[in-house]
Amino acid sequence: MRINADFSKTALVVADSVSWIHSPESGVDRIMLDRIGDEVARATSIVRYALGSVFPRHEHAKGEEFLVLEGIFSDEHGDYPAGTYVRNPPGSGHAPISEKGCRTTLWVKFGHLPVAA
Question: pTM of this prediction?
C-alpha cells in the first residue's frame, strides 16, 4: 500500500474529508496520512481507540512516535493524557489500551527512525 508516499511532494489531508478505516483490532480505527507498506509499514496516521479497546503487544523495529490528541492513552509503561508526546526507540514494544473512561485519539508515526548499527 502506498499513500502520499512521494516525499518530494507536498501531501495535504483534511481529516474531515476522509473516512476512518478499521484496523485489524476491534475498536481501533485510523486515518492514513502517509504509508509505505501494509500492516508493517512506514506510516503516519491519526488513530482512534474506542473506550476499552486494546491492541495486542507488538514491536516497532524502526521506532514509533505519538502525540495524544484527545483522551488518555495507556500501555504497560504508563498513562499518557492529551498533549503528551512519546518517542519510542527502534526495537521497543508495547500493548496499547484505552481504558480511562473516554475515547482516545493519537497522531502516530512509525517505521521511520534509523536503527543503530
Answer: 0.85
As a dihedral over the C-alpha atoms of residue 40, residue 46, residue 50, residue 51, rounded to 10 degrees, the angle is 100
Backbone angles phi and psi of 16, in degrees to 5: -70, -15
Q: What's the confidence (pLDDT) of residue 60?
A: 87
What is 2-110's CATH number?
2.60.120.10
Residue 86 CA: distances (Å) to CA of 4, 40, 71, 103, 109: 24, 20, 15, 19, 11
| pLDDT exceeds 90 at position 101 | no
Q: Which three cell numbers stand for residue 55?
A: 491492541
pLDDT at 79 over 90: yes
Q: Per the structure block, which three cell numbers stand in for 56?
A: 495486542
Kindly report the length of the chain: 117
